[in-house]
Amino acid sequence: MATEKKPPLRMCLACRQMKDKRELIRVVKGPDNDFSIDSTGKKNGRGAYLCNNSECVNRCMKNRLLNKNFKCEIPSEVYEKLSEEYIGDK
Prior knowledge:
By secondary structure, the protein is of the alpha+beta class. The protein has three helices and five strands.
């Protein structure tokens, strides 16, 4: 009697919806306080998740949601990289 394994769910910072972790963008604060976008989902550190759509990324940038989530100042390069990778081509 094997039970099905449930997919790991995470909440988007912007729209607050629970989604499968693999569908979301993960921003990580590493052990040495550097921030990066984690495409593998396996980097060490505290993560924050965003939907992979321009609405949520825009809302995150406009309201500086990463700053609020990590309770510290996020370098503007992180927001720029999010903008380039997830808004620029859509």
